[in-house]
Write a structure and sequence with these properties.
Elements: H1 3-17, E1 22-23, H2 26-32, E2 46-48, H3 53-65, E3 70-73, E4 90-93, E5 100-104, E6 109-112, H4 118-128, E7 132-133, H5 145-150, H6 158-161, E8 168-174, E9 180-182, E10 214-221, E11 223-224, E12 228-236, H7 242-251, E13 257-262, H8 263-269, E14 284-292, H9 295-314, E15 319-326, H10 327-334, H11 340-346, E16 359-368, H12 373-386, E17 392-398, E18 403-413, H13 417-436, E19 440-441, H14 446-455, H15 458-471
Helix pairs in contact: 1-3, 12-13, 13-14
Bound molecules: flavin-adenine dinucleotide.
Flavin-adenine dinucleotide is lined by residues 71-79, 82-83, 94, 114, 137-140, 143-144, 146-148, 150-151, 153-155, 209-210, 214-215, 343, 478.
Length: 484
């Protein structure tokens, strides 16, 4: 965009959202031009921060009339380059729209705006609705609930209901041409209890990565918070036994959460990792969270977990409880091992698991079947060790074991151009490997989405293109992210 057009646009947008909420300073724009991944940066022309759905509508109409690309933005922490404005244009930063509008305790849903973070919801529920909880990712608490759920994210209750995209009851959205719509039960009822029974348009925004419109309100499912809860870390000795052992545990419906880390993640955490050498006796460490409405029920679940593991071991699939943490104990140990605290500490590691500056982090991750997991981990170990990176694999069981994620955590030094290029090549190999196994990449960067679109059913691809064109005739919404 030339300087004159940019100035004119900034003025007109300021007329809608207020001058204080239009950002044009180069250092500020630079912040929005990149994220912590290896995806190439690109500068936006300006950033607009609307404060209401009405302002979003006006800004979108203006952009559409001038064919200016727009990118919806929450906190830019998606780890896939998904808010990098590939064609410049305007970033629509939704952080000012941060109201929690309703909590329905009986139907267990919360209605909120896109600027509301997981930390906001956690605090609100603790204070006002202590019997309820939300499924949360291991992402920083400042990230957006709506953005994560729209991305089909994965969290603490994915085991129960699948990815977060399946936990959306309905939403309000502004289409790329500026019209506002409601989806789900709220489109014909005052209550946001479900995305059924009318034809389901929530799907026009879930997994679209901000390419079909801007969501300005969403109803998110909440879950009962049980009084008795505990974590159990289960070690599985042989990676080939993972599907059988984890599958049996989830089908017993005794655990609310099942999320694993390969031994390398733990070895790095304890500073004992050596490339190509196994230091720990088991191959996968899987955190299980068990919960119960009564002590009796909770104890029965723990007992059944132990019985299953003893029987699996008897049948030659060695698996044991290595640590059991009381809920409070978890809070203390998280900073040491393995999950969020560890995730944050692995982010300042570089090649060969050695702490290095540079703060780059990215990952390759796909949704696939639990059955594929052992083969995928073995191939990933070969690929990552060849590129001299620690094969830090993680798993999370989704939808009662119907599917699972397989993802590889890649900290790197983003100041080292050679290392950045190495990461790009390695990620392509990992993505290809996952796709060849039948897994599909979630919140994938552009190049990985293009890889997936090469495999997609032609009828599906044709319909996707027709719907995108219908919704966004000027192709202004986050161009390039849909991979078509
Ligand atoms: C250490 C770490 C751990 C993480 N762990 C997890 C994890 O366990 N599970 C998980 O799911 N994620 C995880 N993440 C990824 C990420 O933080 C979340 O997915 C996050 O919720 C999305 O990021 P965001 O809120 O910053 O959204 P953004 O990155 O700002 O946006 C994400 C995408 O949604 C689009 N978008 C944003 N808002 C809207 C809107 N209102 N309407 C339409 N489109 C919109 C954007 O254009 C973009 O395509 C992790 C990230 C980090 C850094």
């Amino acid at each position: 965009m030339n300087e004159e057009d940019r100035k004119a646009l900034a003025e007109d947008v300021a007329g809608i959202v207020g001058e204080a909420h239009v950002l044009v300073d180069p250092p500020v724009l630079d912040n929005y031009s990149r994220d912590m991944t290896v995806e190439p940066p690109c500068l936006p022309d300006l950033v607009a921060m609307p404060g209401s759905v009405d302002e979003v509508q006006q800004v979108v109409k203006l952009a559409n009339a001038r064919k200016v690309p727009i990118v919806p933005f929450a906190t830019g922490t998606n780890l896939g380059g998904l808010t990098i404005p590939r064609k410049g244009g305007m970033i629509i930063d939704l952080k000012r729209m941060n109201r929690i509008l309703e909590v329905n305790e009986d139907s267990m849903y919360i209605v909120l705006e896109p600027g509301v973070s997981f930390g906001d919801v956690e605090r609100h529920l603790k204070r006002n609705h202590p019997g309820l909880k939300i499924s949360q990712p291991a992402a920083p608490a400042f990230t957006s609930v709506v953005a994560n759920y729209l991305l089909g994210g994965l969290g603490t209750l994915a085991m129960k209901a699948g990815c977060h995209g399946d936990m959306i009851n309905g939403l309000e959205a502004v289409l790329p041409t500026g019209e506002k719509i409601l989806t789900g039960s709220a489109s014909a009822s005052p209550h946001w209890f479900s995305r059924h029974p009318l034809p389901d348009f929530c799907g026009l925004f879930v997994d679209w990565k901000g390419t079909s419109g801007i969501v300005t309100k969403a109803s998110i499912q909440l879950w009962p918070k049980q009084p008795f809860e505990d974590y159990y870390a289960v070690g599985i000795w042989d990676i080939d036994h993972v599907p059988a052992v984890l599958g049996r545990i989830v089908k017993a419906e005794i655990t609310e959460e099942q999320s694993g880390r390969t031994r390398e993640v733990v070895e790095v955490g304890f500073g004992m990792y050596k490339p190509g050498e196994q230091q720990l006796p088991w191959d996968l460490l899987v955190m299980h969270r068990l919960a119960g409405a009564s002590k009796k029920l909770f104890d029965a679940k723990v007992e059944l977990l132990q019985e299953i593991l003893e029987d699996e071991t008897k049948q030659g699939r060695r698996a044991e409880i290595l640590w059991d943490f009381s809920a409070n104990e978890v809070a203390r140990r998280v900073s040491e091992f393995p999950t969020t605290g560890f995730v944050l500490s692995w982010m300042d590691l570089g090649k060969e698991g050695v702490k290095k500056p540079g703060g780059g982090s990215t990952w390759v991750g796909g949704y696939g079947t639990l059955e594929q997991f052992p083969g995928g981990i073995k191939k990933a170990r070969e690929i990552m060790e060849r590129h001299k990176f620690v094969p830090m694999g993680s798993q999370r069981t989704m939808g009662l074991g119907r599917y699972s994620i397989m993802r590889f955590l890649i900290p790197y030094n983003r100041k080292d151009a050679e290392e950045v290029q190495e990461v790009r090549e390695m990620m392509k190999e990992l993505a290809r490997m996952e796709l060849d196994q039948g897994a599909l990449m979630y919140k994938a960067p552009e190049w990985a989405t293009e890889m997936m679109m090469e495999k997609v059913d032609p009828g599906y691809l044709d319909l996707l293109k027709r719907i995108k064109e219908l919704l966004d005739p000027n192709d202004i919404m986050n161009p390039g992210k849909l991979g078509i």
